[in-house]
Design a protein that fits this description.
This protein has a five-stranded mixed sheet with strand order 1-2-8-5-3, with helices on both faces. The model is unreliable at 45-61 (pLDDT under 50). The longest helix is centred in the middle third of the chain and has 32 residues, at 244-275. It has a single domain (3-442), classed as Cytochrome P450 (Cytochrome p450), CATH 1.10.630. It is built from 17 helices and twelve strands. With 445 residues, the chain is of the alpha+beta class. 42% of the residues are buried. Helices cover 48% and strands 10% of the residues.
Length: 445
């Protein structure tokens, strides 16, 4: 039983955990869907200790979602990306970015995801052992690089992908992730030191990104459909374009966060599918019933495939908590009273393990998502409210298409039956051993 599970057993609705170090007030964790809904659906525009708005009957008992809580990520992604902003600035930036991840844009990315999945599997030899997390990282990294930057294969693209992979892996273990949490460890002792190597990679990545931005500014191409081109063409209501620094920070945030989380979700999917023969057989039967020429959109709408992907995100959520909210006024929730400056975290992991919502929660059972519809505060893998993940639709689309492409065309097996456990990878939760698997080969036509 984990620390969080033990704490919830003692105080099921709310419990304090001040070691997380958010804000000036106490940090309170909850897994109760009603409490999470109350907190996440009452975001106030004003940020923590900035732009205070006088309390009125309309905004009393509201919560802020200050971007400065992401300050530990500043060395990685800078200070001007959407996840670092608060209030109206955050809202405006999300409005600029949202169209790139929804609607018709997804259909443009569908075949790309399938093709890149084939491309990465073709680097494996039959009988070869591999870590699923390494394979899915390359699939997701290639996908996000092409979606965000529009890169085609070439030396420039490969150099950037190599730098991104090394940067992400550099914070992959709990020990190395401590570099982000403690400023005292951020010492540049040369390229052989962890922080020194990170700074070297950051400089190389910045040089590539700024060169790409300058080139696009000098030679605009309105036919391009990648996210960088869309962001460069976008304007705020005041007619302002994003600065080079803002473009750079958004690109880094999208490239790193956009591939790390999705890669982990796909790897967990492969683990759970191959752990349960019944689940695998049902999924294969659904996939085999497809037309050979089924479109990516048709594949993504398959009910059991969707249920498997959702159950993966329920059983093994990539994020542990929702984004912190801060009470701006005294607040009463479920009969509990909290003072201003109390920081609230919705615990995604504990919410997904509640037996009153998900009976037998430790059992991987996709059918639960076919039997009922869960509220967005019961099943909450991407957060909710003003800080809901902007790339949610693309992440789910990629998860479904990558899994479908892998299982329709190739066969794999787990290298052993030892249960896979979650461990912290940067600020996410990933399979501790990376899901060791054996590639058995391509399926017969």
């Amino acid at each position: 039983m984990t620390y969080l599970e033990r704490a919830q057993t003692k105080t099921p609705d709310f419990f304090e955990e001040d070691s997380l170090g958010f804000g000036d007030g106490p940090t309170v964790i909850t897994s109760h869907p009603e409490a999470i809904q109350y907190i996440l659906s009452r975001d106030r525009v004003a940020s923590l200790k900035k732009n205070r708005v006088p309390a009125t009957a309309k905004n009393r008992q509201a919560f802020s979602a200050p971007g400065e809580f992401n300050r530990i990520l500043s060395p990685l992604i800078g200070d001007t990306s959407a996840i670092m902003l608060s209030g109206e600035q955050h809202k405006t930036r999300r409005q600029l970015m949202a169209p790139a991840f929804h609607g018709d844009r997804l259909t443009v990315y569908g075949q790309l995801i399938c093709d890149l999945t084939h491309e990465q599997v073709n680097t494996l030899a039959p009988g070869q052992p591999f870590a699923a997390r390494d394979l899915t990282q390359q699939i997701s990294l290639q996908t996000i690089a092409k979606v965000v930057l529009g890169f085609t294969d070439g030396p420039k693209s490969q150099t950037m992908l190599n730098i991104l992979t090394e940067t992400a892996d550099g914070f992959g273990s709990p020990a190395s992730a401590m570099l982000l949490f403690f400023n005292a460890l951020q010492k540049d002792l040369g390229a052989w030191s962890p922080w020194g190597r990170f700074l070297q990679l950051k400089r190389q990545l910045d040089e590539l990104l700024y060169t790409e931005i300058d080139t696009r500014l000098q030679h605009p191409d309105p036919s391009r459909t990648d996210i960088l081109s869309m962001l460069m063409a976008s304007r705020t209501e005041a007619g302002e374009a994003l600065t080079k620094q803002e473009l750079r920070d958004e690109l880094i945030a999208l490239l790193l966060a956009g591939h790390e989380t999705t890669a982990t979700a796909i790897a967990w999917s492969l683990y759970w599918i191959h752990r349960d023969t019944g689940v695998k057989e049902k999924l294969l039967a659904e996939l085999d019933a497809l037309s050979p020429n089924a479109s990516p959109s048709e594949i993504a709408q398959l009910p059991y495939l969707s249920a498997v992907c959702k159950e993966t995100l329920r059983r093994s959520p990539v994020a542990m908590f929702t984004f912190p909210r801060v009470a701006q006024e005294p607040v009463d929730i479920l009969g509990y009273h909290f003072e201003p400056e109390t920081v609230f975290l919705g615990c995604i992991f504990l919410t997904h393990q509640r037996p009153d919502i998900f009976p037998n929660p430790t059992v991987f059972r996709p059918e639960r998502f076919l039997e009922r519809k869960f509220s967005p505060y019961e099943f909450i893998p991407f957060g909710n409210g003003a800080r809901r993940c902007v790339g949610e639709a693309l992440a789910q689309y990629e998860q479904k298409l990558a899994i479908a492409t892998l299982l329709r065309n190739y066969t794999f097996r787990l290298a052993h039956q030892t249960p896979e456990k979650a461990k912290r990878r940067g600020v996410t939760l990933a399979p501790a051993r990376g899901v060791p698997m054996i590639f058995e080969g391509k399926k017969s036509p």
